[in-house]
Amino acid sequence: MASPLIRCFSKIGRQVSRPWSVCQHGLRNRSTQPDMSAEQAAALGVTYPPLQTYSEEEGMMRDAVKKFAQERLAPFVSKMDENSLMDPEVIKSLFEQGLMGIEIDPEYGGTGSTFFSSILVIEELAKVDASVAVLCDIQNTLINTLFTKLGTAAQKERYLSRLSTDMVGSFCLSEAESGSDAFSLKTRADKHGDYYIINGSKMWISNAEQAGVFLVMANVDPSAGHRGITCFIVDRDAEGLQIGKKENKLGLRASSTCPLNLDNIKVPGKNVLGQIGHGYKYAIGMLNEGRIGIAAQMLGLAQGCFDQAVPYTRQRVQFGKRIFDFQAMQHQIAHVATQIEAARLLTYNAARLKEAGRPFIKEACMAKYFTSEVATLTTSKCIEWMGGVGFTKDYPVEKYYRDCKIGTIYEGTTNIQLSTMAKFIDKEYDH
Ligand SMILES: Cc1cc2nc3c(=O)[nH]c(=O)nc-3n(C[C@H](O)[C@H](O)[C@H](O)COP(=O)(O)OP(=O)(O)OC[C@H]3O[C@@H](n4cnc5c(N)ncnc54)[C@H](O)[C@@H]3O)c2cc1C
Question: Does 74 contact ligand 1 (Cβ within 6 A)?
Fold first, then answer.
């Protein structure tokens, strides 16, 4: 099934019809925006274009998703938050638009686009709803990438074709007693002939309510420590898999977060993803990339909140003036806008480094750390700028404020990001 975005971006079919009018030049570059397509940059003879330069495909993707988020997602956001439930229509439309298999090869029904496009998609979705952004983020930056990089031909055929069209995946590393210290996990996988028996439990598993497949990190040889950790593909209908009651959370309420119980689950040897004992490497590698996705989520969230609050300050009148016109307000707004811009540059730079095959781990940590801080500052300030109404559910800023807190916690807490950065900095000064 060809989705609209696949038709939009298919490398073979550049001339085919584009479903959305925004999939055209012109609308992309308003004069006030620093954005530029790679083609425009080349035409101007710019050899080193600014970071906010997009390929034609990236620009179209971003604009198309912006429109999609406004039209197909925004109407559901408040209800989904209130009910703590992702609307199945939203998930269906993400698949229909090709947003759940952005980098998956079209051979498997994917959109065949790039990591940077995934980052732009996550940013645009998070402007409207961070819960939907994290669903898309985990699917694209963790699950699909693991299958693409490590899967056998049979595993790719079976799972990538579903992950791009109708199946959500979950990444299962954390346990009740192993969070930041993830590789002290206790879940065991014991080999019996050509299958494994998995026992243990997982905590905080995003998207578990909807997932059809779980990538479970379990230790096949605890005496080898973290070198026993192996990645297993566990289907939702596996006997012995229980998905617990979802957490009642402060924010990201539409995103399901559940514990899992793994009770004598029989998994065939062919469901090992990658090599035995390499699970810890895969988890580290994926989370390094995934952090750029979380940075994009926090960046989009901050921008989305700012976009809600600033127009209010331009309309609200006190002391006979727009509140935007008070210098004290202007300075705060300009300060926050600068922080968001810096967050965007850190995020895009980390994504471009990763895509270029250059070292990016320190930069990914910086991006995740900084964007989380900026999202916290922005959402807090936006509530203040709106006064009493900002504190109510009549406006969406209070939701952004609740949703942003997770940025400092998952895929490595802020302390863990800072410690990783410090390790790199320390090495840089070795002589
Ligand atoms: C909404 C949500 C969704 C999640 N989704 C997933 C998922 O899909 N899959 C998955 O596997 N996990 C998921 N997680 C788990 C998440 O990655 C962990 O919560 C996170 O790694 C932190 O672990 P912890 O909660 O056990 O906190 P802890 O590790 O107990 O940390 C508590 C505090 O101690 C600090 N700390 C710990 N160790 C150090 C140290 N060495 N130096 C300095 N400070 C330290 C931390 O920074 C933090 O401030 C999710 C969590 C949440 C809340």
Answer: no
Tell me the Ramachandran region of residue 277: left when phi exceeds 0, alpha when psi lies from -120 to 50, beta otherwise: left
Determine the distance from the C-alpha atom of residue 364 to the mean position of all C-alpha atoms in its chain, rounded to a whole number: 13
Check if 68 has its Cβ closer than 6 Å to any atom of ligand 1: no
Separation of 124 CA from ligand 1 center, angstroms? 26
- For strands 168-172 and 211-219, give the pairing: parallel
- Residue 38: predicted pLDDT: 76
Of the residues 174, 175, 183, which should be mutated to test ligand 1's pocket, given the most ligand atoms within 8 Å of the CB? 174
In terms of DSSP bridges, do strands 272-273 and 229-235 run parallel, antiparallel, or are they unpaired? antiparallel
Q: What is the DSSP string of 14-58?
A: TTS--SSTTSSSSSS--TTS--EEHHHHHHTT-SS--SSEE-HHH
Which pLDDT score is estimated for 55?
Answer: 93
- Given this model, what pLDDT does residue 13 score? 32
State pTM to two decimals. 0.92
Question: Which residues in the chain come in under a pLDDT of 50?
Answer: 1-4, 6-32
The answer, yes or no, to whether any atom of ligand 1 lies below 6 A from the CB of 141, is no
Q: For 52-105, what is the HEC assignment?
A: CEECHHHHHHHHHHHHHHHHHHHHHHHHHHHHCCCCHHHHHHHHHCCCCCCCCC
Of 397, 376, 377, 378, the closest CA to residue 387 belongs to 397
Average pLDDT, the chain: 92
**Cα 197 to ligand 1 centroid, rounded to whole Å:** 27
Using DSSP, state whether 168 is helix, strand or coil.
Answer: strand
pLDDT at residue number 75: 97
- pLDDT, position 34: 65
Q: Are 65 and 121 spatial neighbours (Cβ–Cβ below 8 Å)? A: yes
For residue 267, what pLDDT is reported?
Answer: 97
Residue 369 has a pLDDT of 98
Instruction: Tell how far CA 4 is from the center of its chain.
Output: 21
Q: What is the pLDDT of residue 382?
A: 98
Q: What are phi and psi of 242, to 5 degrees?
A: -120, 130
Three-class SS of 119-140: HHHHHHHHHHCHHHHHHHHHHH
Active site residues: 411
Rounded CA separation 61/9 (Å) = 8
